[in-house]
Write a structure and sequence with these properties.
Elements (H helix, E strand, L loop, with lengths): L5 H10 L14 H13 L6 H15 L2 E2 L8 E2 L10 H15 L1 H13 L2 E3 L10 H25 L5 H31 L4 H15 L5 H18 L10 H14 L5 H18 L6 E5 L11 H13 L5 E6 L5 H12 L5 E5 H9 L5 H5 L2 E3 L3 E3 L7 E7 L2 H7 L24 H27 L2 H4 L3 H4 L3 H6 L13 E6 L1 H17 L5 H9 L6 H8 L10 H18 L10 E3 L6 H4 L32 H8 L12 E6 L6 H17 L4 E6 L2 H9 L8 E3 L4 E3 L5 H15 L1
Parallel strand pairs: 4-5, 5-6, 9-10, 10-11, 12-13
Antiparallel strand pairs: 1-2, 3-9, 6-13, 7-8, 14-15
Helix pairs in contact: 1-11, 2-3, 3-7, 5-17, 6-7, 6-9, 7-8, 8-9, 9-11, 10-12, 11-12, 12-13, 13-27, 16-17, 21-24, 28-29
Length: 737
Amino acid sequence: MPYAAFEKDKEYLFGKFRNPVFDPSTGLDNETVRNHILPLAETMKGLPHPVIKGRLFEYICRNIRIDVNPHDWFPGFACFDRNRRPITPIIEQWDHEVNEMYLRESNEIQNARNDAGLHSMWKDFDHSVPDWDSILTLGFPGLLRRLEQYRTRRERRGGMTEDAKAYFDGIAITLNAVLEMLDRFIRYAEEHANGNPRMLAEAECLKQLRTGEPRNTYEVLQIIYLHFMFCEHIDRMQVRSLGNLDRMIYSYYQRDLEEGRFTEEQIREFFACFLMQWASINNYWGHPFYLGGTKADGSTEINDLSFLILDVFDKLAIPSPKIQIKVARNTPKEFLDKALDMIRRGHNSIVFVSEESIRRAMMSIGYSEELARTCDIRGCYEFVPRVLGNTTGIGHINMLKPFELIFNNGKDPKTGRVFQSKAPKLEEIRTFDDFYNAYLLWLDNIIEGIISCSRAFERHLHRINPAQMYSATIPSSLETARDAFSNGCVYNNSSILNAGFGSAVDALMAVKEFVFEKKELSLKEFRDILNRNWKGHEKLRLRIRRSELKYGNGIDKVDFYAEMIARFLGNKINLRPNSRGGVYEASGHSARTFITLGERTGATPDGRFAGDEMSKNLSPAMGMDTNGVTALIRSVTRLDAATFPGDFPLDVMMHPATVQGKEGLDAMRGLLFTYLLNHGVAIHFNIFDAAVLEDAQKHPDRYTGLQIRVCGWNVRFTELAKKEQDAYIERARNIAE
């Protein structure tokens, strides 16, 4: 086989999905296939949705253009664009039908509240993690055989309802279509190889996966990639983790080296090509996998392969995929130092998650210690019981919106919509306790709206988008013949996230300090100032911004309110039943809603202008943590992470001068463990000099490789909007002062 070819192949790999070229003789282009979906579905009208979707999946597999290229170890799919996936039109049609048939009233409520920015809600099909161990152990043919065994077992016990039959039929059609598409790849490779050893080797790999399970490192990486492509880009069900790669692949890696099948350098090349698939796909959110963990005997899962993967990723200098590292007291210091050193050199696509803190969070809502130990890390930093759980992310609370509703007696100034709650009118508020109570009552109103609307739509997920590739891997789904994404897992929970937590604490403190303590203005005067977006009151705004009473600075009387609001969220959300047989979980994660909900929120008492971004995750507002990173960690860990069993993330920005040399590395590691040992769950770093960011803003062509950690993912700084760049520059200036 040809190896040591990665450097000359890198340009092709980076452009594989960014600038794709497919042989027209291999089939139809993506748009043509996409345009055929609805007419084809119409010919099957009346059949169950799983069967229709299976047949459409089959049509795509038979007709979409493909590629097997001498510059790559992995085949190409012409249906690679997440925004133009060919099967999407039928999912959108079924979504519309469900909305019209079952959800008219709840959708009117949901849309009105979304438009006004009380929350951001959607039907989530983006957070599943397949049973990778089953995929590796059984392979695609084995998954099909296991499906038939479950079908036969159900038939024998007399439980084959029409719904169950449709479930099994849909998955069977889907898996058989996977095998057909593998045949297409094999034929193309053999017919076009012209003696090229790499294409012939890829054909042999695919032949093995066509008939059995993977046997070596290359075949394992191939099946992971293939399942991802089939599930996410054809079945339209996001694969939100590539799995615990070092644990999953280590035995294959060891055997390959011991038996002389591959050298370490050859395996490095496989991993480099594998990782480049996601760099080329270039999903904005980044694509995750995780390393580490703890074995049943208490020893670490970190191994030689963990170091190899990290080293390969380091050399590639790509923002995606992204890596989560499970950290425990047993995690080797040299491994942590390697990851921390990568971060201080600009490889920010790494987040650390604490096993001990995850255990506290998961056990607080009823999971066992063993399920916590073996949980999957998924998405940005979320965690879920491996194989047994699927947690949807159904909506984000706008933590700042209650202020607009208090000051305007339930009216959203931007849309003119009026909402009702038990909160007192502005003129009835006499004390700060009254104001704080009004804030909580409006927060309660937003949470109840999310729960009510999500209970309505989550019971229909299986009608809208049957999760057939995902369900095929989940034993509880096969046993119950229920869709794994809907209600076929053992734990079918729903996560309620938030945006603007730190900004909300700052806004409360501003009202407390300037209205009720210093009595510099009344609530009505404050309302008028905010509704004019601070026009004519810049001095007051700056005084509020510069007040020391800001979350993230280790100030007890501020952090007390942060703690109370966090407890309120947890008490209102956690363990309430959803409509999928699971419960709700509170989450501290904001994703991009700290920007999008900010755009739908007027000026707020913390000195923020209308439309500006809010604080993200459980971090302080940009630029407001001025007492150093130790004070920041003290504030955040004042909150109990077990209050947020969905996830509990913190963003840290540090100046490069503070992390240089051995002392700097020791300082980073010390901060990491300070946070984790105080029950923080997830933490990630940006190491920046404001001057560098300012220069990158002026001269983007000089900084094309500059990465920045946005929330739970990385982007290139030069690709951010100027307004977003300015926020990072402001915070970088503050940490330098």
